[in-house]
Amino acid sequence: MSFNILEFISSIFELTAGDYLASVWGAAPWVSVVLDMIGIAMVATIPLLMVFVVGWTERKVLARMQDRIGPNRVGGKYGLLQMVADVGKMITKEMIVPASADKLTFFIAPGLAVVTSALLFAVLPFAPGVIGVDLNVGIFYVLSISSISVVAILLAGWGSNNKYALLGAFRSVAQLVSYEVPMILSLLVPIILTRSLSTVDMVEAQAIPFFFYVPLSGLIFFISSLAETGRSPFDLLEAESEIVSGFHTEYTGMVFGLFMAAEYMAIMFMCGLFVTTYWSGYRFFGLEELILGNGFAIGRGLGLLILIVKSSMVFFVFMWIRATLPRFRIDQMLNFNWKFMVPLTIALIFVVAIVDKLIPVGLNEISRASIHFASNIVVGIITLEILRRNGRRQRLAAEAQRQVNVPDVAAAD
Length: 413
Fold this sequence. Notes:
The protein is mainly α. The protein is about 70% helix and about 0% strand. The protein contains 17 helices and two strands. α1 crosses α3.
């Protein structure tokens, strides 16, 4: 039986606030609409509340990786209330708007960024049967909504009327639009394996996680998600040493906090989407199905716990990379995308589609996964050989160029 989060929350309100409203205003048609709106607001608030946990975790983990202590003053020795204090500071700070800024565009941008990040969670399956809206085109919905974030960034840079903000916005748009291509292509692989655009169907089809089918495609999606969220080594969106703070250079106070919240919400969603499409989501080799029969709360609670643990592990890798790798130059970032990731992803799509078509119907999952994995290994070996030859060719060309530029000392004598 499918369980809808909005229906569940609405049913709770119908037993409490719904009865009260009905007794005061009668059984008006708009009462149910109000309850639905309250349910939607509660679902949209959950990612915002998660920002506190994710923000504190990142600061604490990064501090340990850099041989620091991290938050240790507010809320005890572990600094558990540090994020609450930061939010309070942002709320009380003055919001300074540049005199030459386009005020309407300036204030629309952060709100649009937060709304976009919150809307993405609507199609993320949290547990068996627990999802905001089970769309049969869930992946298409994700790609459509996520593209709006590019508009928010461009509005922020343009509305600030600041050269650094505008340069940061242009750079951000170039990066996000470029890396949307390999991300979309890498999502085609689980779509081919599942034969569906529904995120729920993808989870249910993964008796064995798709990452074990096509690890190269999974890695490409992971790298693309780093670039799409502006994390290291793709943090050119706010490169402090180059463009001050990127597209939100002129933002202060709570409007700057909205951009931070949107960034963390996008990171959480990308971790959840990566787990959903390549690591079987809330499933763990059938464990959730064994316990699901013991009751609604137990089975779905376990599925939610599995999803949280998997997403947390992916987020830990995000933090690990941020503490380890330096920032790419923008030319390196674009060359890596267009000359390596996009061609490799296109090749993987053709290989996966052909191999999946040739696999006999009814073959067990282990054999099917092994065949796809073997084809992925072949593609990887061919890719490494092509890279080796290209690297050798470039080294020889550079050596020849140096020989031309060095004067013949013997001839001069």
